[in-house]
Structure prediction request, 762 residues.
Amino acid sequence: MQDFGAAFGDAFGLLLGFDPALMEIIGLSLRVSITAVFISGLIGLPLGALLGVSRFRGRAAVLVLLNTLMGLPPVVVGLLVYLMLSNAGPLGPLALLYTPGAMIIAQSILVIPIVAALARQTIEDMHAEYDEQLRILGVGRWGMVATLLWDARYSLLTAMLAGFGRAVAEVGAVLIVGGNINHVTRVMTTAIALETSKGNLALALGLGVVLLLLAVVINAAVMGVRATAARSAHA
Amino acid sequence: MNYRRRVFLSVLALALTAMAGSALAGDRFITVQSTTSTQNSGLLDDLLPKFTAMTGIEVRVVAVGTGQAIKNARNGDGDVLLVHARPAEEKFVADGFGVERFDLMYNDFVIVGPAADPARVGGMRDAVTALRKIAAAKSVFASRGDDSGTHKKELSLWKAAGIDVALVSGRWYRETGSGMGATLNIGVGMGAYVLTDRATWIAFRNKGDFAIQVEGDEALFNQYGVTMVNPAKLRHPKIAWSRAFMDWILGSEGQAAIAAYRVDGQQLFFPNARPPGG
Amino acid sequence: MPFDEPRAGRNDRRVLPITASGLVLERAGRRIIDNIGLTITGHDISVIMGPNGAGKSVLLRLLTGLLTPDAGTVAWAGSGADRARAPAVGLVFQKPVLLRRSALANVRYALRGGSRAERTRCAEDALFRAGLAHLAKSPARILSGGEQQRLALARALAPDPEVLMLDEPCANLDPAATAAIEALIRDARARGTKVVLVTHDIAQARRLADDVTFVHDGRIVEQSPAASFFDNPVSSAGRAYLDGRLLID
Prediction:
């Protein structure tokens, strides 16, 4: 029978005592997901903004596609990335398989559509507000994209947070491309999967709560930054 | 704004170098494609640090089902294959993907089931007869269903019992398509009989009221083998390190370490590599 | 500072005279602009007046290149409106659209060329002239309605445009704010900027106009110097409008 009380106590004991193995896993989870969100921002924000300000034939179809890609199944993405990075695949020479780099790539693929779609919506709304004024100031398309992205930065932060939530919570992609290798590619979610398969259900649940706490802390921190910045410079 | 932009860009540059650094690790390691049973039993966590301490070579284990492990190795995504499906391993070598297969260690399979034992197979030795009784009673049975060594062994037993499980899949015969641990979780959850290797069972922490019901049959013998992947298939073959691993694990030290591994006082794996040259 | 050069020297930035001919714009089967031609030139204040729905705002947008007419042309100093010369045409909307940054940053955003320090100085000057120097670092969007409109005006004037167009700039403002805006408009004219003001406020038009263009139903119905229009409107529509009667047809 599972002793949930004891196991939860164990999990939090590890956390509060800064157990090195747990810290390593948490550290890797954060490193992988934050990097992935970063990359997704670099690619997804300008992409979403460009879509938000442009009008072209087939735009509706592109938007449908983008929104659909938000729901890419992580395990499918993991499989595709594995096939790319495998020694038998085209990108084999990069020797990225079973490294955090592969996990970052897979998570970036998952998060880019989210960031782009949410950015597109935010920017499109802001574009409606700013368009005439910016055009009369002589701002061209790329200038408009840059201005809108900067002015919408706090809303876009929320989009990035959504992407982070997705990245840090998924297990299917990182399991396949990372291999859940101890000390190398084991993150919170794959560790939870492993403990579950070993029957350590309560410990797995405890780790799950730790993961949730992590997400709460990060969200709170970002919201805090947003609040102070809003008070000082934004409105 | 200019100043903030500069700070932002330097943080960005720092982050990218950190990420790049972590992605391209250039240290000494080999990759072993193995099964969930060696992982979940804790054997590898116990064994491999000893090898690393001695040679300085890190061993990275990708623990998946046997079928996936073999497929990964065929793709050249591992240096060594350590699984328990002899015919598949020999085919692996015959097809040119492996250098040579060696017996490594053995343990046995057992059939575990709920304390209530609806099919009345508790205490039996003969696995095939027990399976016939389970089928006759239509008691729920949870299978790996994932082409693993355990799964292949299970199917061979059903075949010997003359029962076509494909016909009853979804009824009393439930294919989980998962690893051993996940299948045990599911089995315990539905009160189903499960064929499992002893090592995983002993190390398993969610036994509920389950116990070993059938054991001791010679047919339940479970042989593990280790094979070096053909360097010609690998893009960055680590021939010397892989060989060092093979020599160690098949040699006296590795074999002794395997024998020494215990969980709850029980030995889980029994080394049976033939001495070199024999 | 690039903006102290005499206007004559900036030949590549000339936009005046702005000439429109044969402008037509249709929306939903209705002609909003019905064959309008006019010329904007000089250094005084032209007021475009007319009842709501006459097409005044649309006309401004056509003249500044924000809208493309269905027929007819708009030319800036002989060639079509282009982005490079946009700073020479200032446009202030009825409702100011300000970026989510400080007042100073908003004005600086409108400036091109020179170093960042030069642009900052220029922006500070513009804010000073508009009486907003004390609000330079404030977030633009928390300013009052009147202050925001003054800021929008400062932003439009900062690049020292050849022509300043305003679309009902005081429609939402209280008298004090209106007075401040009108002072800035007079100031701009004094500095040599041509001003085109769209307003439905007859009193304001009387205060500011040098000449009046009266628009009704998408057409120019009357165009004359301010004094003669207000004392003696020629068109019946103009007369009715000044009398305070609603123009319905």
About this structure: Chain A has a mean pLDDT of 90. Chain A touches chain B at residues 1-2, 31, 34-35, 38, 86-89, 92-93, 95-102, 104, 179-182, 184, 194, 196-201 (CB under 8 Å).
